[in-house]
Amino acid sequence: MGNKPPNFSNSDNPAADSPALLTRTLTFSYLPAVNFWLLLCPDTLSFDWSMDALPLIRSLADWRNAHTVFFYLGLLFLAWFGLRTHQAARGKETNGKAHHYTNGRNGNSNGHSYQYSNHEHLNNSHAEAPIHTAQNGTTKPYESRTPLPTTENVVVFSLGLLAIPFLPATNLFFYVGFVIAERVLYIPSMGFCLLVAVGMRSLYVRLRRRSSRALLMYCSAAVVLLFGVKTVLRNRDWRNEEMLYKSGIYVNPAKAWGNLGNVLKSQGEMEEAEQAYRNALYYRSNMADMLGLLLQESNKFSEALQYYKLAIGSRPTLALNNGGGRVEAEGWAAKGSGYKRPNSTLDAAV
């Protein structure tokens, strides 16, 4: 690469290769919403999101723009709510009407403030007196516990952990070689989990009824259990390449069928591999060279030649090399040389 930006295939990030500014803007604005949904509800996962796994948004009439609008409105609402809560808390502290106690110490230690009456303040002041115990004839006070970080600090840290590592994948500063990559969500997922924990803690404190708190705990346990089951099921897809590529057929059929054909071919399952390549060709026409290569290895030269002709438009060098070489191997020297001759021109141009 040197001092030049890396070059990626058009299929790796189709939006980056789109000449329309509107298409690039709408698609790149939509990608953070998709990644956030993968964190919130990872029901659809894939080993690869390239090619046409995520169709481009080419117009304002696309219904997926609503997801983009709701996502950014939600971010603005969270920012407004956080600032409003912070200002309200500072106002209470300055007018002297609010006293915060946490873990037996003054200060907003865990980030959740409570208002106490003067009577409660006196009771708490007595309760805060150091407790002494007799040990070997001496009296020692208990050491106070380390105060917990404030809710505001936890939220800011969580948002930073969620957003900053994800910024390079937004195509904001430079184009990347993928549409969506689940691997870039590993660190942001930690910030997301912290935000969920803070939200659940705040909701638990606000609930007064024991039944409501119990319901919240049961719902939290159910979510953790469901995500655990999802993790176990997803781990099964990663046992071997064949299962992994089969799991991605729903999201990225062209890439999944093509890779599955390669795996089946390496295992000697030629009929299954041929069917996989044909399925890949159904979704994407530039997969014809792989099917042609398999057919020529199965001694189906006439049919292989047809697919090499089809592949010349997308992969001319590979198609002409394979097509010309196998035709010559069959003794069709005239046709073989005819296929190799234009390839020499292509190689010289490259």
What does it look like?
The structure is a single chain. The protein is mainly alpha-helical. The protein has 3 domains: 1-126 and 148-206, no CATH class; 210-238; 241-349, Serine Threonine Protein Phosphatase 5, Tetratricopeptide repeat (Alpha Horseshoe). Helix content is 60%, strand content 3%. The protein has 13 helices and 4 strands. The protein has helices spanning 21-40, 64-94, 118-127, 151-163, 186-206, 210-237, 241-247, 253-266, 270-283, 288-297, 301-311, 316-329, 333-349; strands spanning 101-102, 105-106, 132-135, 138-141. The chain has a two-stranded antiparallel sheet with strand order 1-2. Helix 8 packs antiparallel against helix 9, helix 10 (288-297) packs antiparallel against helix 11 (301-311) and helix 12 (316-329) packs antiparallel against helix 13 (333-349). The longest helix has 31 residues, at 64-94. The model is unreliable at 98-135 and 331-350 (pLDDT under 50). InterPro entries: TMTC_DUF1736, TMTC_O-mannosyltransferase, TPR-like_helical_dom_sf, TPR_rpt.
Q: What key phrases describe this protein's structure?
A:
single chain, 350 residues, mainly alpha, Serine Threonine Protein Phosphatase 5, Tetratricopeptide repeat, 3 domains, two-stranded antiparallel sheet, 13 helices, 4 strands, 60% helix, elongated
